[in-house]
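Batch job 17 of 40 flagged for manual review because the log was empty.
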Amino acid sequence: MLYFLLEQGYNLDNAINKINEVSLYSGRLEDAAEEMFDEIYLHEIPEHLHSYIDYKAFTRDCEYSSDFVEFEFDSETYTCTNASAV
């Protein structure tokens, strides 16, 4: 979390103060977006329509809006899932 904040341009003091505001997903942005979509919206969509869900478009929107930011740290991939709010 600290690494992400420092990479986003925060100085050390500000990053330490914001560290608890960061939500991280251990994995790729695409996987984080799909999991979040399923947790928030899938239950509202009738099952017979699930095959029409465009996860790639949802992922693209999350990335373009800077809500989700993928980064590498110590050879692992992480996704900040609330980047625009931090």
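Reviewer: the log was empty due to a logging misconfiguration, but the result itself is present. The domain at 25-85 is CATH 1.10.10 (Arc Repressor Mutant, subunit A). Unflagging and moving on to job 18.
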